[in-house]
Amino acid sequence: MSETMPILRFVYDRRHKASDVKPASVDLEIYFNRQERKFIGTGIKVFPSQWCDTNHIVYHENAEQFNRIIDALKKKVERIFIAMQVDQEPITVQTFTDRYTGKVRPTSFIDFMYDSIAKRQIKESTRKAHLAAWETVRRFGRLRSFNDVTIENIERFDDFLRKEAPTRCQVTIHGYHKRLKPYVIEAYKLRYIENNPYNFFDDERGTSKEREPLTESELERLRTIELSPRLDRVRDLFIFAAYTGLSYSDMCAFRFDLDTVENNGRYFINGERIKTGSKFYTPILPPAMAVLDKHLYDLPTISLQKYNDYLHVIETLMGLRKPLTSHIARHTFATTVAILNDVSIESVSRMLGHKHIATTQIYAKMPDVMVERQAEKLFKIG
């Protein structure tokens, strides 16, 4: 039996396998004594430059969210030890593990959901999406215990999603339910809840809103509009993405000296998607090269939330009647920059790192002006 409370600390890359191109896991170390310690995986992987022993996860698009998640894990473990002390239960690796893994029936649904996400064999990108849903459920605050998992609270959660962010479309709301539902069903199968509320909840899928890329004239206005230094840096990132096709996460990971190849004085990015691991090969067009030159080939860094917030400010200053977001830069590259300049859909797919042409077709919409150009040939038919 341990006479004192175990010591908790987060450990990064305990197997020493991380590199500039390979992320590693963040684990919670529980130090019982010199002979006993336990590690709990957080399900989160980051690169060495994104970890700090004091501030934890930094320079990552989901840094704030991930830090809240790992802090919640630490608090959960602390609550288990406090409960064990109150129950006068011996504190050992085995007794703690029994409580943590649910051999002792859990009482917290929110903890059960987190643990289930960490244990599931799913892609890291999928795990991030499920952790984001868990964070939203935690913010909602009415699905804490298994007794809270009722049809009434699922309906309240649906209402919460709509009120918290009025711009959320039905597809996005459906996504939150889609990621919560497996853990509700699992709790039902384990008999932690008497009924599965999703058997009685009508969750419509909805249809996605079509993203509108910037036109040539809008892109030119964005490049020339006078902005403050802070907004200017944000504009530079958008321009770089709009003339390379990189997503936000791939742009954050981009290193000019490691990720580019030169061919006849022109530079190309030869990379691998962070999200899917698929290869891509895309040119660094002159406006993007100008951005790199301006920043001495080291792009500015900013969180995704701040990036999108400042893009909305630029959107207002420009008087755009369409949203300006990080995603729009990638769509603008596919449609306005590439397709409008007669680049084949197969080449655009390779540049974007898509595994299937169908995915590229979602990004690369045929602009009206392109249809008009092609129609000129038809008008010549006598």
Provide a brief overview of the structure.
The chain contains 16 helices and 8 strands. It has 382 residues and is mainly alpha-helical.
Summarize the structure in words.
By secondary structure, this protein is mainly alpha-helical. It folds into three domains: 1-96, no CATH class; 105-209, Tyrosine recombinase, N-terminal domain (DNA polymerase, domain 1), CATH 1.10.150; 216-378, Orthogonal Bundle (hpI Integrase, Chain A). Helix content is 50%, strand content 12%. The protein contains 16 helices and eight strands. It has helices at 63-86, 93-101, 109-119, 124-140, 151-164, 170-189, 216-224, 229-242, 248-253, 256-259, 286-294, 304-318, 326-338, 345-352, 357-363, 368-379; strands spanning 7-12, 24-31, 37-46, 51-52, 56-57, 260-263, 266-272, 279-283. The chain has a three-stranded antiparallel β-sheet with strand order 1-2-3. Helix 4 crosses helix 6 (170-189) and helix 8 runs antiparallel to helix 11. The longest helix is centred in the first third of the chain and has 24 residues, at 63-86. The termini are far apart.
Keywords for this entry:
single chain, mainly alpha, globular, 3 domains, 382 residues, DNA polymerase, domain 1, three-stranded antiparallel sheet, 8 strands, 12% strand, hpI Integrase, Chain A
